[in-house]
Queue: 3 jobs
Job 1
Amino acid sequence: MSGSIASYDQLVRQGEALKKENSHLRRELEDNSNHLSKLENETSDMKEVLKHLQGKLEQEARVMVSSGQTEVLDQLKALQMDITSLYNLKFAPEVMSTGRGAEESPPAPAPHRDGPGELGRATFRMLEELDRER
């Protein structure tokens, strides 16, 4: 009979340990969820700022093209490539480390979609043409 009491006490201790571990895991999951939400909000804010900046740059590029200031456009082209490279270096490893593979990544924008992305590609093509003409 003392063996069954010992087994019961052992099961109670294991149950309490499991409850503690469960509570700990719930807290950790909640913390991770809060952190992910914060990162998503920051990413969304950064995307809005980048869209705004891209719009300003594209507008400035159109003014420069119409006034013939191609040397500054070359600098902007290089800056755009640097920013893209920096973004890919900074954020691609983070996306992979969060367990989000390519299948979970947002889809690439449609090639003929009207919007800031299309203007950016058009500006980039225009800059390349100007560079070739030189």
Job 2
Amino acid sequence: MSSDFENYEQDFAVLTAEITGRIGKVPKLTGDEKKQMVANVEKQLEEARELLEQMELEVREIPPQSRGMYSSRMRSYKQEMGKLEADFKRSRIAYSDEVRNELLGDDGNSSENQRAHLLDNTERLERSSRRLEAGYQIAVET
């Protein structure tokens, strides 16, 4: 029985490695390539879920004295599966840096431009504050 479980473990390890590699590629793709990759990853995630179910069935059939070790392995595999699904969800909506920069108009000079605008606005605010204080002083004196 444990040999079946170990075979499932090996299959799960190979499958999760493939899924991880493909998840990393998803944000860099566009159009039909991205749709096709997403469909492939979804299919592989379903296969991984099925493998986990098979592994769980195997654990139930293992004698109680050895079951604890396999149960802890199953918990870690389920956590890994949850992490893969979360990563996949993020990768589907993520944009590559190039697309992000293009959409936001982010070039290297933007922070310098923002800093210059901030300094100009600060100076303008200080001048206005001084004029208001001077006007207040005149009002108090009269």
Job 3
Amino acid sequence: QGVLVTGLGTFTMVQAQFHGEEEVYVVRRPVFRLDIDVLCLQELAFPTVVIPGDVKVKPLNYKWLSRATSFPRHVVKDCVQETILLYSFQLKNRQHLSFAFKDIGVLSCKDDVLCMRFYYDCVTRLESKASQIALLHT
């Protein structure tokens, strides 16, 4: 299942096949498809990520976040939306700051390329059998 963070992008997990010397590996790996306003991304390159049509994507669950943080739902939603707006504004003004997601990875811009770098632990939690292959292709 994927999670859509409106104005930022979609986090999900995909399965991919990779051919080794003697066998085919099917691995699960995290992906992030960027969905920031195009005006903010002028002069920036970013990888195009295709999320298969069979992956179920749901919007960010503000009710769950509210319970997890003990803040009212409207406060959590406003905070997330304002943070995304601030990050978009910084990108538009060529302030290439990193955006860290706890236990997932970092959205960063280096040499005018904006991409998501997933933490080692995030990848290995998804794929324990062929984690090295998943890491190489993430």
